[in-house]
UniProtKB/TrEMBL annotation:
Keywords assigned: ATP-binding, DNA replication, DNA-binding, Helicase, Hydrolase, Isomerase, Nucleotide-binding, Primosome
Catalysed reaction equations from the record: ATP + H2O = ADP + phosphate + H(+)
Family, per entry: Belongs to the helicase family. DnaB subfamily.
UniProt keyword Zinc-finger present: no
Role of this protein: The main replicative DNA helicase, it participates in initiation and elongation during chromosome replication. Travels ahead of the DNA replisome, separating dsDNA into templates for DNA synthesis. A processive ATP-dependent 5'-3' DNA helicase it has DNA-dependent ATPase activity.
Molecular function, one GO term: DNA helicase activity
Top EC class for this record: isomerase
PANTHER family found in the cross-reference section: REPLICATIVE DNA HELICASE, REPLICATIVE DNA HELICASE DNAB
Coiled coil: none
Name by which UniProt lists this protein: Replicative DNA helicase
Pfam families xrefs: DnaB (PF00772), DnaB_C (PF03796)
């Protein structure tokens, strides 16, 4: 039975080949992990090889011996067995066999864990299923890791990250491109594992703002998963096509277009058909179902770089608990899922009605519904605010009051095709807060950068602006 779970001869042959021909390791490093070896001593030797490679030190017997001796893990007999094994020129078949047996060992360990949580610890079935799906995703994506990272490996990984950023030429954009130049400067893009909350009152355009970011990624050939809990997929596509073609949304809805607009629509449809957009519009989904679907989709389409949930408060709870506890479970679940899948998750959120009683109606963190857990779990919180929405509303209320009193009403507000909008950064775990100004094109439901926006006009809060104006943007360091 155990013979099917490991092959020590193959392990020795692969390690011997790396030591005698270190140039092979560069290709193998992306495939093999230490835990793919069965024998602990083999795991230690391979781990030492990985460390030496990252330090740009020679991969040979003496340096491996020195590295393992510092950790008191060197086994002379095991090393002699490896050196006496015949090195192979083509390691592909051997590595495939090691990976296959490693997978079987992980699956066997998983079956033991399932039995333990289902029978001995009596977990609820929904939590057992979620645990199994998470473990299976980790196994199939080869993301099994040890419980702790030692200081040396963390330091080496961090330096490699810094060197990678430097190689980009001090680019201000580190994470996923938002599609808005000034917002990119403030956030350096959305980082892998970030939970981003986009919050606003109704009619402010939070869905449009999210779709604008989606459109930008699709144009770059990136993949996006969109969970639409409020509107069907066809309505989302209409908005995306309006943004792409610059044909007003109302014209698209009724098909009232001239020949030139029909031509633009046809071209946009062709582009959209080949895009990597995946929409789930089933309307009702809880955190467990969302996790399951997104893991499966990410496994099938690794090119997906961002997921969007529209919107958080519509998500179903997994029980009959207090709503605040359910929202807490959702926000924490989304944050952990973002880290697990190593991509940003953007969740839209409603704001409390109470802010409309204030003179300054610009949102604050406390305005988010069930804000405590959301504020804690989010890495970035963005508020979408358009002052014209309230100016128009106040105009209509004055007109209604004048008519009720039989008075003549003289309009003072002029409705505009393009309105100034603010994206307020209420929280940013790894950068400054403040706001960025955009233009909102109402007929196209499209946000765009200010045409003549000056970078020095960006408003920073609680940050030393002298450092904020450096060429290098705020860098989001990898999570330790």
């Amino acid at each position: 039975m155990e013979e099917k779970l490991y092959n020590l001869a193959f392990e020795k042959a692969v390690l011997s080949s790396i030591i005698f021909e270190p140039s092979q390791f560069e290709e193998l490093e992306a495939i093999l992990k230490s835990e793919d070896f069965y024998l602990p001593a083999h795991q230690d030797i391979y781990g030492a090889i990985v460390t030496l490679s990252r330090r740009d030190e020679p991969i040979d017997e003496e340096f491996i011996r020195k590295e393992l001796n510092t950790k008191k893990k060197f086994d002379e007999n095991v090393m002699l067995e490896i050196l006496s094994a015949n090195p192979i020129s083509n390691t592909a078949a051997y590595v495939k066999e090691l990976k296959d047996k490693s997978l079987k060992r992980h699956l066997l360990t998983l079956t033991t864990e399932i039995k333990k949580v289902a029978l001995e610890e009596e977990w609820p079935s929904s939590e057992v299923v979620d645990m199994v799906e998470k473990k299976l995703y980790e196994i199939t994506q080869d993301s099994q890791t040890s419980d702790f990272k030692d200081a040396e490996s963390v330091t080496i990984d961090t330096m490699r990250y810094i060197e990678e950023m430097k190689a980009r030429g001090n680019s201000v954009l580190v994470g996923v491109d938002t599609g808005f130049a000034e917002l990119n400067k403030m956030t350096t893009g959305f980082g892998k594992g970030d939970l981003v909350i986009v919050a606003a009152r109704p009619a402010m355009g939070k869905t449009s703002f999210a779709l604008n970011m989606v459109q930008n990624l699709l144009k770059k050939g990136k993949g996006v998963a969109f969970f639409s809990l409020e509107m069907p997929a066809e309505q989302l596509m209409l908005r995306l096509l309006s943004v792409d073609t610059s044909v007003p949304l109302q014209k698209l809805r009724v098909g009232d277009m001239n020949d030139e607009e029909w031509t633009r629509l046809g071209q946009a449809v062709e582009r959209m058909q080949s895009s990597k957009l995946f929409v789930d519009d089933q309307g009702s989904v809880n955190i467990n179902q969302l996790r399951s679907r997104l893991r499966k989709l990410k496994g099938q389409h690794p090119e997906i770089e961002m997921a969007v949930i529209d919107y958080l408060q519509i998500m179903s709870g997994t029980g009959t608990r207090d709503r605040h506890l359910e929202v807490s479970e959702m926000s924490r679940g989304l944050k952990m899922l973002a880290r697990e899948l190593e991509m940003p998750i953007v969740a839209l959120s409603q704001l409390n009605r109470g802010l409309e009683s204030r003179n300054d109606k610009r949102p604050m963190l406390s305005d988010i519904r069930e804000s405590g857990s959301i504020e804690q779990d989010a890495d970035i919180i963005l508020f979408v605010y358009r002052d014209d929405v309230y100016l128009y509303k106040e105009e209509k209320e004055r007109e209604k009051a004048a008519k009720a009193e039989g008075k003549e009403f003289t309009p003072t507000y002029v409705e505009k095709e393009e309105e100034e909008a603010e994206i307020i950064i209420g929280k940013q775990r790894n950068g400054p807060t403040g706001h960025v100004k955009l233009l909102f094109q109402k007929r196209l439901t499209r946000f765009i950068d200010m045409p003549t926006y000056n970078a020095t006009e960006i408003v920073y809060e609680n940050v030393d602006t002298s450092s904020a104006q450096m060429d290098v943007g705020t860098v989001s360091m990898p999570t330790i």
